[in-house]
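Write out this protein's structure.
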Amino acid sequence: MAAEGTTGPTPGEYIRHHLVHLSNKKQESIIDFSVINIDSVVVNIILGALVCWFLWSAARKATSGVPGRFQAFVELLVEMVDTQAKGVIHNAQSRKLIAPMALVVFCWVFMMNFMDLLPVDLLPAIWHVAGPAMGFPDYLRVVPSADLSTTLGLSISVLLMCLFYNIKIKGLGGWTHELVTAPFGTSKNPIWALLLGVVNFLMQMIEFVAKTVSHGMRLFGNMFAGELVFMLIALLGGFAALSFSGALFFVGHLIAGTIWALFHILVITLQAFIFMTLALIYLGQAHDAH
């Protein structure tokens, strides 16, 4: 990774190395569905298990008396999600599944985003020793939400749930009728009815695709940008050992890292909330007739 004649990687090499996933194979094209980012999958499974354990522990320890801090915190989360769900989904039966799903999504996405607050080189440095010893490449990215395949996978899952509830609530015939009559309506004239049906159907498909792509891209873009900023701040600490004015770089590294980390706590929470809220809004739209 280091250039010849240097003691370490250049800034460009450092960033490029940290942006490569631990994958099952080298990606040969922009869209390659045979590539699996193993690091994102493993970290997602671990974080998902932690979220399930966290919520299960809260439910198991819940009492009807005065709640402790842990129970009060979880009850605050549940109330926040339930309020959001009631505001956009008016079907009480649907909320029995959707509200808990939204709670898990919020906690899960928050934990994915939280991985960005770990020191940039902490887990990659451990993997630098353990990975090659087990025969794996020396690459590791630990922020799943900075991986487009993760965020689009989540948004596609929301899309599939929207399709399910469109059919469940409106019936297959009712939803099919909506696809060809909304948003521009229809006409009694057969020719105009056919033309409007085609236009309406295309607009509906564009809407589904646009919502799904923007849903995943919004989370990915914000977390990827945050990851890059942390890498640039980490480089300041690296320059400290290479310069006579290294103390200034080190102080700048600490100040910039602290300020960005404090600000990023708000970012990761907000992004998790936005992703959950958009999922609820899209599911709520699946319940409403156009």
